[in-house]
Amino acid sequence: MTTTTPTPTPALSPLTEGRLVRDVRLTLAHFRAQLLEMIRTPVAVIGNLLFPSIALLFFVVPQAAIAGDPVLATAATAQLSAFAIASTCMFTFGLGVAEDREKPFMPFLRTLPVGAVPPLAGRVLNGIMWSFIALIPLALVGGLLTEATLSWGRLVPALAAVVGIATPFTLLGLAIGYSMSTKAAIAVVQVTMFPLAFAGGMFMPPEIFPRWLDLISTFTPTRGARELFVSATTGAPLAGVFVAVLVGWTVVFAALTTIAYRRDEGRNYR
Question: Which residues make Cβ contacts (< 8 Å) with residue 133, sequence separation at least 6?
Fold first, then answer.
């Protein structure tokens, strides 16, 4: 009879562990610095926070058939919530990064031996945090003026969905911000966000789309975000294709952000 000795799981080397700890600390430092910078100019995000709740107030609340039905009201609030998350991330970071690149502090910051991960991860964390803040006005309007509800059992899926939506759209905003000037970024974000929002069913339910538009909509990141948040808040079934599309776009946007960051670094700081 022979016995085998289990192979111990290799531990992280001190160097690797030190790098992980360093990257986490630097990410948190960038997150804090970027957060303070945004708090100093809150008007930059106020419009993104209010527009979706105003749309809910004017286009959903007056329709008694929707506002008075718990399922329809929750779904309508959820799809506008997905728009709030996407627009907050894209406008805040698409324009914010383009503006930061024109400030004197950015050249100094980019010369520090930090690497790409901490500053980008810090911005993604800020995108997630501001996404949660963007949902507060919508939650108030939907909760007080409609029959929209969110049970305790749907709270954790809803919170996870916010992270799943905020991450790709923050990355898309970063890709735009690191690629263009402020003036160009404003136009590109607007031209990109609103058509995607309409095509993704964030302003009107995709059930009323013609077949050809529904097919196109299926492969947009906004449709994946809309379906994910509606499913998370209402418990409706979520088709796997929408998860796959959203994950795929997240990978694409992450690659575009990395390429834009490196190109900007090579163009301006070498």
Answer: 45, 49
Q: Which domain holds residue 224?
A: 23-268
Q: In this structure, is residue 183 part of a structural domain? A: yes
When pLDDT is cut at 50, 70 and 90, the band that residue 113 belongs to is confident
Number of domains in the chain: 1
Let me know if residue 223 belongs to a domain.
yes
The end-to-end CA distance of the chain, in Å, is 65
Identify whether the C-beta of residue 127 lies closer than 8 Å to the C-beta of residue 173: yes
> What residues have CB less than 8 Å from 148, skipping those under 6 apart?
70, 73, 74, 76, 77, 142
* 166 located within any domain: yes
- Using CA atoms, how far apart are residues 203 and 194, in angstroms rounded to an integer? 10
Structure tokens at 231: 């499913």
d(CA 56, CA 130): 19
* pLDDT tens profile 28-57: 888 888 888 777 766 666 766 788 888 898
Residue 8 placed within a domain: no
Q: What is the pTM of this model?
A: 0.86
